[in-house]
Amino acid sequence: MIRNMTKKPLEFTLRAKCSRSKARAADMDLPHGRVKTPMFMPVATQASLKGLTPEQLEKSLGCNICLNNTYHLGLKPGQDTLDRVGGAHKFQNWNKNILTDSGGFQMVSLLKLARITEEGVEFQSPHDGSPMLLTPEHSMSLQNSIGSDIMMQLDDVVATLTEGPRMEEAMHRSIRWLDRCIKAHKNPDTQNLFAIIQGGLDADMRKFCCHEMIKRDTPGYAIGGLSGGENKEAYCEVVTTCTDILPENKPRYCMGVGYAEDLVVSVALGADLFDCVYPSRTARFGNAITRYGNLNLRNKQYADDFRPIEEGCKCPTCRPKSEGGMGITRAVVNSLASKETTGAHFLTLHNIHYQLNLMDEAREAILEDEFPEFVKKFFKDLHGDKDKYPQWAVDALRGVDIDLLD
Amino acid sequence: MNIAKMTFEVAKTVASGSAARTATLNLSNGNSIATPAFITTSSRGCVPNLTPDNVNVDKHVPGAVAVGLEDFVERPQAPLLLKDVGDEPSRTRFSLPEEVNIFLQTRRPSNVLPNKPNGRNMLSMYSSVGVVDIDIDQFPLMANAVAPEVFVAPADASGLSPSGACPGSNKVKKMVMRSQRWLEKCVADVKVPIYASILPTLPVLHQKEYLKTVVENQDKINGLVFHTRAEHSEYPDQTIDLSRFDSTRKPTDAAAAESAARKAAAQGPTDGNGNPLDVKTEHLTGPKPVLDELKNLGMGKTMPLYHSGQCDTPQQMLLLIQQGFDLLSGYSVETFSDAGVALDFTFPATPGAVFGHNLWDPKFKNDFSPLADSNQALSAPHHRAYLYHLLDAHEMLGHVILEQHNLEIYNRFLAGVRRSIEAGTFDADVKDFFEVYGDSKLVLKLVEMGEKLQGSHGADKDRF
Q1: Under an 8 A CB cutoff, do A335 and B80 touch?
Q2: Lower CB count within 10 Å: N or C terminus of chain A?
Q3: Do A307 and A167 belong to one domain?
Q4: Is residue A312 part of a domain?
Q5: A39 with A152, same domain?
Q6: In-domain check, residue A394
Q7: In 3-state terms, what secondary structure has residue A27?
Q8: What total of structural domains would you count in chain A?
Q9: Is the Cβ–Cβ distance between B282 and B323 less than 8 Å?
Q10: A397 lies in a domain?
Q11: Which residues pair with A301 in a beta bridge?
Q12: Where does the pLDDT of residue B376 fall: very low under 50, low under 70, confident under 90, or very high at 90 and above?
């Protein structure tokens, strides 16, 4: 392999490809260490992953990359504080990688009064209601101050189900904004800027956008504007359309994807990176994600259930004390859930481990070229009966030569 | 089954002045606790905010964890702790590291008084679903199922009142009789070491019959527990005149008047013949009158003294240690952590240092110094600005880090106390401590400040 003379902030090395589906395993070397793909990236919105210490995330869960939200960090602690301390890694004592979004998604999802112009996103300050403007330049400046290993371009986010001229405008504008982001990005030697493919559910727009973004040759590409209420068939269609076009030697990131089934299918369709608040958010509502489906541990049927959350689970919460874990049972979580924060912490540890482990297992299967078997076992464990398999997953996987029903 | 061996060896007492002492408490599990030590609070079987992997036994819970049975009695018909699953004691159902020492108590270490009197054979407890009556027969069963290092036998304290006043004489009779019977029941049926409770607020004279029961069973009792409120100890007719060290208060001001009023209130009760009772109740004078009486009644051994009642500050802890207490409730760690305070005090005091920092204060927004100035090499690598941010952003991690930090500060504080007693400088060091950091009232202002600042941050203004 030919290596560049100067080390780039992102080296993406394919390790294996599934001989049937589009699934792949790769090593992504970033400024704060190696990330093995496929990878789920937990979300530490406000520079903290809901109650977990950075030590727990790194050492107990083996996580090498998490997300911070630019919009939230821009408000608290603010750019001035981030500049003074020398970036978000130092701020939160996290020595592994950070990916930041651009802030655009929060603008649209959280602020009802946001208005998008060619200049940027106009919104009212949540502090005092005064008008503010987030431009591609401002987003880059914030993400440069954060010092994230992967930065996302500011894109024009519209509701996924939007059609016609507004979607087309958003797609074209996202391309123009990428150019402005590239120009404004001050640290291309130490921070990677990813493009975001837009175009809603329209295959032609997605294809056009992919080709335009590829011309800009960013270190990685995200598929954006999904997980916005579209049906799963449409989602899979967009992902597979994009992965067919995107270059093989760069990472592909499906933004906002976190349900286990979606992860497994998206990996089969050729995506590498994922993020979602789902595992930590659902933990706070007392839900445990397991191989066999979710359990709501607040339910009183678990009050006397002295089994681990998931039999055989290797997470710090479930692993028996004899193996260095905490040996926590469903009954214990039940007695703590919604009464003590530790109840949420136990489930957050378990759920994040579930997501990371699921991607680990997928990676191992790809490396052994046993990915189709992995996918079949995953669906069998989750649903048991083949009649219960969701049709969209069966169809999407059939499209990449994995027949779940066979 | 044999009652596990437990010993208590006093190493050093202060030569003159206070009754402070160091000792080693050897527990049945082979662990030993160097005293004076604090007993970490738990809630529903966990150290608040900490999963067991975040609890470092040596740094955070060097003494023991107090677990209240009250946290586990929502379903009196099917108590969680009595459910039999294999050979494991039900202590494995607590969210605590395996090697932690457990003191099992009836009530959780909060300050809520029961609002419903106990019955002849039942104890009223506050569970998460309301007041629950637990049959007294359940307690030995639960104690044996949990297998703690120490079980604090229940006593009838339903005569307690927030003012600290002594209950009426009929009530006193009931309290004494029930407590005698309950203690005898525990002594007969509990298979782990037992600490006996001293009846709170009752003058020695009125609990003499109960103290006799304690003495009669001394072979099977390993310690004594006092449930009083420590605030009553801060300005007693004490050996140390605290007003001298208190810059915020003159001896003639309202607090002194309050203290006098409190004493007057305690003089209220009379015996059956209308004569005033002996007003030397133990909450004003420390454990000495009770210990003297126990000795008169034939108590032959030195027992560890555990103050499990309310104790709001390290200042109050020091005064209790001077009264001779060996084990102290660490409940105040929660008070400070909940209020956003990162503690920074040492013992002996560090001249010129501050007691702690309320990290809700916007002045910490860009303060990248460690949480504590005067304690180097603490385990938390985080800085004040991050903690300010976590509190400001309502992130749960803030309370995780503060809990760890403050437990570690308390641990160092008590290690300092033990060294000071060994060195014979304790009473002087206590005076210095009050001079440098102020009294309880002063340091509790840090807590009040948290409540005020927290309000000004606006819980919902910045959230979506």
Answers
A1: yes
A2: N
A3: no
A4: yes
A5: yes
A6: no
A7: strand
A8: 2
A9: no
A10: no
A11: none
A12: low
List the structure tokens of A278.
Answer: 């789902």
CATH number at residue A210: 3.20.20.105
Task: For residue range B142-163, list pLDDT tens digits in order.
Answer: 999 999 999 999 998 776 666 6
Same domain, A310 and A252: no
Range of the domain at A190: 11-276
- At B446, list the tokens: 């840090």
| Burial zone of B174 (CB within 10 Å; 0-12 exposed, 13-18 middle, 19+ buried) | middle
Tokens representing residue A21 in the block? 């589906």
Q: Is A246 found in the same domain as A352?
A: no
Do residue A92 and residue A238 come from a single domain? yes
A266 and A250 both lie in a single domain: yes
Strand (E) or helix (H) holding A72: helix A70-73
Domain identity same for A142 and A265: yes
- Neighbouring-strand partners of residue B39: B64, B329
pLDDT tens for A93-140 read 999 999 999 887 777 676 666 788 999 998 877 777 777 889 999 999
* Residue of A91, A126, A317 lying closest to B462 (CB–CB): A126
User: Does the predicted TM-score (pTM) go above 0.95?
Assistant: no
CB B148 within 8 A of CB B91: yes
A147–chain B nearest CA distance, Å: 16
Which residue from A minimizes the CA distance to B382? Answer: A93
Q: Is residue A400 part of a domain?
A: no
- Whether cis (ω within 30° of 0) applies to the bond prior to A247 is no
The ipTM, to two decimals, is 0.95
- Amino acid occupying residue B123: L
Cβ–Cβ of A304/B78 closer than 8 Å?
Answer: yes
Return the residue in A49, A72, A76 with the most chain B beta carbons within 10 A, the one to mutate for interface testing.
A76
Quick one: average pLDDT of A171-179? 97
Q: Work out the widest C-alpha separation in chain A, in whole angstroms.
A: 62
Contacts of A52 in chain B (CB under 8 A): 397
Q: What is the pLDDT of residues B83-136, one digit of tens each?
A: 776 778 889 889 999 999 999 998 877 656 666 788 889 988 888 888 888 899
Residues A130 and A225 in one domain: yes
> Cβ(B400)–Cβ(B382) under 8 Å?
no
* Chain B contact set for A317 (CB, 8 A): 51
Residue A227 and residue A65: Cα distance in Å, rounded?
Answer: 21
